[in-house]
Every structure is written in structure tokens, then in C-alpha cells.
Amino acid sequence: MAFKADKIWIDGKFVNWDDAKIHILSHVIHYGSCAFDSIRCYKTPKGSVLFRMSDHYKRLYDSCKIYYMDIPFAQEEIEQATIDLLKINNLDEAYIRPFAFRGYGNLGINPFNCPVNVCISAWDWGRYLGEEALETGISCRIASWHRAAPNTFPFMAKVAANYMNSQLIKIEAIKNGFDEGIALDHSGFVSEGSGENVFMVKNGVIYTPPTTCSILPGITRHCIFVIARELGIRIEQHILPRESLYISDEVFLTGTAAEITPVTKIDNITIGNGSRGEITRKVQEMYFDIIQGRTEDKFNWLRYLE
After folding, report:
1. Which CATH number describes the domain made up of 133-291?
2. Which residues of 14-27 are buried (b: 16+ CB within 10 A; e: fewer)?
3. Distance of CA 109 to the CA centre of its chain
4. Cα separations (Å) of 296 from 21, 39, 53, 291?
5. In the annotation, is 175 catalytic?
6. In the chain, what are the domain boundaries?
7. How far is CA 171 from CA 149, 162, 164, 168, 200, in A?
8. Structural fold of domain 7-123
9. What is the CA radius of gyration of the chain?
């Protein structure tokens, strides 16, 4: 079923959802020249909150900088437009997708004669990997498609073109009966999921691949470092061979959409005891307690709409 809301913010104006259109010869359609990000709005007992909005928008601006795309709005304007959009759409909980793209100009690889358009959309979207997945976990397969080498695509940029590779990883997983795929990097080491960062737990220590393994430095990924240290759990960035996932005690994926999702099977090998692990549960609990307003936001991650 298609998702929908009333309005979308486009270049400073609120446009009806069904009227939010671009020219078919826009640069983005032919060459994938789009940077985007994802933000969650959560309903809490004290009102709706935007989770790490400024950090997400900083990453959007950084992604555009890497691709020489100048966003024609200040970050403060974009943040306020996001708040206004949620209010206009009467959304107290939402998934938010801001994006900047090369629009209609010249139809050639050279993008500089095409304008940079900016949009923000928001709608009610539940758990990305399913409501039960946060507790029962999901199955993954190691993808036959690898992440590209560092000198081919800049993976620190969250751009549409990178997600063609992600689509292949996701499609392959689904076609073979798995919920999600995990990619290896160009050297054959663990990289990330199709749209999530990967963590594993072994002997009480949390490990995750470093940014040199062609990963997107996730905002939720950073939260795991903060939470782990707060809980007194050792956490390290480490190059990980694929088989280390098989023999780990726990595996979980993180992302704005996926939040913190346990993995209980990889390539039909049971991870740990086949259920959500204790460390995963502890990290989840602290994360959700913060974003759902049940505990103090000591890290200043939340911005209230009112």
C-alpha cells in the first residue's frame, strides 16, 4: 500500500502530495544525482521529538559538498521547514526524507548547468524490518554483490546512486528467502547491510567495521558507541571477516529506518542461541527509552516540535 501525506516541501513552498512532480529530463533521473537523508519523529509523553535532526542535516550538507551540490537554503531554514511540514501534515510521529537533487537543465553527465532542488517529505511509516523484528530478530545472507572500493564511490556520502548496489543486495536476499543482505567490502571483509550498519558481539565486546570498509557512518551507529560507553560495554571498530559473524554471540543492524534490529540467522547459521542477545537488548532498551521520552535525554539528541 502506497504511503501518503498532504503536503511536501519543495524549494521553499508547500505543495500538494499529488502535485509534487519534476521534469522527466531532470539530471537526477538519468544519472542518480541526488543526496538524501532520513530522520525519525517520535511521539513521547512530553510531545513529538525529532531525533538528531541537526546531525542528519549536517550529513546531507556534507554529502552534497562531496558532489559539488550547493544547497540554496541555510540548514536552519531546512530544519524549520521540517517542523512546519510535520505540523501542516498533522504528524506526531513520522519518517522524514529530505533530499537535494540535480534538476532540469542540460541532459549530459556534466551537472553544473542543472539547478539543485531541495525537497522534504514526511509520512507515517512503521518498523522498516517489521514490528516483531526488534525482538525476534531477522535472517540475513552474505551478498554476492560487494560494496565498491573506496576510490570508486564516496561511501561517506549518502547519495541515491550508491543505493543501486543496495537494491541488488536486498533483492538477492529476498529472492533467496532472507530478510536482509550483508555486503562485504572490496577486500572481502564485512561492510554493511543494504541500508544498515552491522555490529557483532563476542565475549562481551561489541565490534563494528570501520569507515575504511566502505560503510556509511550512520547516525544511529554513532548512538551505539555513546550508549555502549554509557553502559560500560567495550566497543571497538575492527575489520571483520565474514565468518566472525557466524561464530559471534550476537549480531544486530542499526539505521534510522531499521533502528536497532537483532540478527538471529546468517546464511542459515544460527547466531548465538538463536534469539535476541542480552547486550543487544540492553542497548535497545536505552536507545528506545531516550527516543520515546521515558528517560533523560542527557546527550541532547531530541528536539521537541513545540
Report:
1. 3.20.10.10
2. beeeeeeeeeeebb
3. 27
4. 42, 20, 18, 10
5. no
6. 7-123, 133-291
7. 21, 15, 11, 5, 23
8. D-amino Acid Aminotransferase; Chain A, domain 1 (3.30.470)
9. 19
Query: Of residues 158, 202, 282, 298, which has the active-site annotation?
Result: 158
Q: What is the pTM of this model?
A: 0.94
Q: What tens-digit pLDDT sequence spans the chain (306 residues)? A: 468 899 999 999 999 999 999 999 999 999 999 999 999 999 999 999 999 999 999 999 999 999 999 999 999 999 999 999 999 999 999 999 999 999 999 889 999 999 999 999 999 987 656 668 888 999 999 999 999 998 999 999 999 999 999 999 999 999 999 999 999 999 999 999 999 999 999 999 999 999 999 999 999 999 999 999 999 999 999 999 999 999 999 999 999 989 999 999 999 999 999 999 999 999 999 999 999 999 999 999 999 987
Residue type, 251: V
